[in-house]
Every structure is written in structure tokens, then in C-alpha cells.
């Protein structure tokens, strides 16, 4: 049995994708200077698939409508892959 604890909005913070691209560029430059084989080109879809999601707000929302509104605002603010998840607790 589960107890409903609210709705959590999470996604990828604005700017993290650009930071990952820059880090990959620095890695390519270092490999080129060292004379090694350059790494594979940056795969944005693979990075988005494996990126860690961050909570938009630390406390979960009580109402699903509030979470939906937060999701819309987060997307407008530049968050990527924004999701709403139900927070539930298992009760014995």
C-alpha cells in the first residue's frame, strides 16, 4: 500500500548541456595536444538520456495542478527534459 506524498518536478538545469559541450571540447583539445585519437563527437541525445535530473523545487507540490504550472514555468526558464513524478511512500 502507498501513501501519496505529493508531486515532484525535476529536470536538467539550464546551462548544463552547454557546460557538457564545452567540457567535451576541452577533452578534444587535450587529446589533440597529446597526439592521441580524438574522442567521439558529442552526442547530445545520449547525454540527455544519461544526465542526472535535478528537482526544480526541493519540496514536493501537494496539488498536481501546481506541479503542472511549475513544469511550464521551468520549461520557459530553460530547463530541459522536465518531468513530473508522484512521490509515494510504501506503508506496511
UniProtKB/TrEMBL annotation:
Protein name stated in the entry: Uncharacterized protein
Annotated organism of origin: Comamonas testosteroni (strain DSM 14576 / KF-1) (Pseudomonas testosteroni)
